[in-house]
Amino acid sequence: MKKTKARSAPVPTARDLPSIWLCGDVHGRFDHLTEAVLQSAPSQRPAALVLLGDLQAQRPLEVELAAILEHTEVWFIPGNHDTDTDEDHDHLFCSALAGRNLHGRVVEIAGVRIAGLGGVFRGQVWMPPGPHEVESARAYVAHIGRGNRWRDGLPRRHRSTIFPAEYQALSRQRADVLVTHEAPSCHPHGFAVLDALGQRLGVRRAFHGHHHDQLDYQAEWSRLGFEAHGVGLRGITALDGRVIRPGELDGR
């Protein structure tokens, strides 16, 4: 009997992708998100929003986004400014939506496996491509004196720092999409270690915030091995790369 060759699963086209919106740094303003969701026809509303850091919520996150929580899922990664003050921290990490933090894990959202790496690289811990100063948050806390701890643990500022142990643990998983606050190397201020992370995860797309711009990376996609997209200040980009709302500084 002639053996038939197994067919590989078809690669999804942009048209096949679920409606997930990636949202650039909001820095305390959420009205544009609620308006974009509520003004969309019910059939065109996103299955989920993923906020790419620097939320700086003025109230607990579930209060800021109360108007849309019954219409779409909300997920996030933290940015460097989300630990600037106690309020910035608590309105995010102590909110009713704290469990929607994607940092350091892979979660299936609307059928898409999304990996998250929030925060930024800091020289006291790790500034690639240089070697790291400390491996993990636990090691950092053990190294500092009790007087330097915040709430008897990691200093608040470093609760938005990328630790090598978190990066390595995430790199051992598999995902379809990577969301980060920092940018990969296609951005002038990006990092090659995020290229490597996307490649190890096997992602087809990656999105980042932080720099408040949206640069054209298409010439870099082949080198990276995945599509990369920056989402500008208070911008919204769909999972297929369509710009739903331009960032406030795009094109400047």
What does it look like?
There is one protein chain. The protein has 252 residues and is an alpha/beta fold. The protein has a single domain, classed as Metallo-dependent phosphatases (Purple Acid Phosphatase, chain A, domain 2). It is built from seven helices and ten strands. It has helices at residues 31-38, 61-64, 86-93, 137-143, 164-171, 192-201, 221-224, and strands at residues 20-23, 48-51, 73-76, 106-109, 112-117, 177-180, 205-208, 227-230, 236-238, 243-245. The strands form two sheets. Strands 3-2-1-9-10 form a five-stranded mixed β-sheet, with no helix packed on it. Strands 4-5-6-7-8 form a five-stranded mixed β-sheet. A hairpin with a 2-residue loop joins strand 4 and strand 5. The protein is globular and about 55 Å long.
Mind sketching the topology for me?
Blueprint: E1 20-23, H1 31-38, E2 48-51, H2 61-64, E3 73-76, H3 86-93, E4 106-109, E5 112-117, H4 137-143, H5 164-171, E6 177-180, H6 192-201, E7 205-208, H7 221-224, E8 227-230, E9 236-238, E10 243-245
Parallel strand pairs: 1-2, 2-3, 5-6, 6-7, 7-8
Antiparallel strand pairs: 1-9, 4-5, 9-10
What are the main properties of this structure?
252 residues, single chain, 7 helices, alpha/beta, five-stranded mixed beta sheet, Purple Acid Phosphatase, chain A, domain 2
Determine the N-to-C terminus distance: 65 Å
Main beta sheet: strand number and arrangement? 5 strands, mixed
Q: What is the number of beta strands?
A: 10
Q: What gross morphology would you assign?
A: globular
CATH topology name, in short, is: Purple Acid Phosphatase, chain A, domain 2
Number of helices: 7
Give the uncertain stretches in residue-range form: 1-13
From the alpha-carbon coordinates, what is the Rg to the nearest angstrom? Answer: 19 Å
In CATH terms, what is the architecture?
Answer: 4-Layer Sandwich
Task: Tally the structural domains.
Answer: 1
Determine the structural class based on helices, strands and strand pairing.
alpha/beta
The portion of residues assigned to helices is 10-25%
> β content, as a range?
15-25%
Average pLDDT for all residues: 94
CATH superfamily, by name, is: Metallo-dependent phosphatases
Across the major sheet, the strand order is: 3-2-1-9-10
Strand/helix succession: EHEHEHEEHHEHEHEEE
CATH class: Alpha Beta
InterPro entries: Calcineurin-like_PHP, Metallo-depent_PP-like
GO molecular function: hydrolase activity
Protein name: Putative phosphodiesterase
Pfam family, one: Metallophos
